[in-house]
Specification:
The chain has helices at residues 11-25, 37-44, 48-60, 89-95, 114-120, 165-171, 190-196; strands spanning 64-67, 71-74, 79-82, 100-111, 127-137, 140-150, 178-187, 203-212, 218-227, 231-234, 244-247. By secondary structure, it is an alpha+beta fold. Strands 4-5-6-9-8-7-11 form a seven-stranded mixed beta sheet. Strands 1-2 form a two-stranded antiparallel ribbon. α1 (11-25) packs across α3. The N and C termini lie far apart (55 Å). Mean pLDDT is 84; it is low at 240-254.
């Protein structure tokens, strides 16, 4: 592979382009190892320092990642999704051309834990609707969505819960108007890791959301966990919306 040494484009940038082209063409894919710095320097007749600069940029851009003692590998492309529990996960993945399967892990009337009770104003220990689902994208488990609804909406348990919960609520005459979301980074518990097929302690992004009706009645509390190695989230402030996103730091636990 030859670099154009007379080009105004720096050699390290040309090397970046070559590696990006390998990935775009499918010559190497997610999880594949790329040639070492020594191998690339030799095949391209450049210094190892030049190759390292190119690799550093690709690692910073999350195109590649290094594994200590093993080498450099192609990273899994991250899925972009809107940072709100008000948005339909199924519709978002469909828009990206990704196949979504939802596995219902639990759907029943339960006694409300403290956080959902506070969010819904239902009183701790009082009956609420629990809907817990595993979201699978392109045959890979990627997220766990746990939602609590007031007991008055128990008829939703007769609905198809494998699609958009927001759409199911609207179909039954309970429309979500807006939501407030809280975002924090957490690590996977043993149970969560088993469900998602990852290692215990792996990074997750947690989004807690309270969905409201147009009259500001709380309709749903959602605790959504997303794999940190799969997702990145965006907030579009150019679109008119009443959505408020609140970012808070993870409080230390004893």
């Amino acid at each position: 592979m030859e670099l154009i040494r007379s080009s105004p484009i720096p050699l390290y940038a040309q090397i970046e382009r070559v590696i990006r082209d390998w990935i775009a063409s499918g010559e190497v894919g997610p999880g594949d190892q790329v040639p070492s710095e020594v191998e690339l320097a030799g095949s391209m007749s450049v210094s190892r320092m030049t190759v390292r600069k190119a690799i550093d940029h690709l690692v910073a851009d999350r195109i590649l990642f290094r594994r200590a003692g093993k080498g450099t590998f192609v990273a899994q492309p991250k899925i972009s999704h809107g940072l709100s529990t008000q948005l339909s996960f199924s519709a978002g993945m469909d828009a990206l051309g990704l196949a979504v399967v939802t596995q219902v892990l639990a759907a029943s009337i339960v006694n409300s834990p403290a956080l959902p009770a506070q969010a819904l104003g239902s009183g701790e220990g009082r009956p609420v609707v629990l809907i817990k689902r595993l979201r699978i994208v392109d045959d890979q488990p990627v997220a766990i969505h746990t939602s609590y609804l007031p007991a008055s909406l128990s008829h939703i348990l007769d609905s198809d819960l494998t699609g958009s919960l927001t759409d199911a609520m609207e179909t039954l005459g309970t429309a979500v108007a807006d939501a407030i979301d809280y975002v924090e980074s957490v690590v996977a518990s043993e149970e969560e890791a088993t469900i998602l097929g990852i290692e215990s302690g792996a990074p997750l992004l947690r989004i807690e959301g309270i969905a409201y009706s147009g009259s500001r009645e709380p309709l749903r509390y959602t605790d959504a966990l997303y794999r940190g190695d799969i997702f990145r989230f965006s907030v579009d402030t150019t679109m008119p919306s009443d959505l408020r996103v609140v970012v808070r730091s993870l409080e230390p636990t004893n």
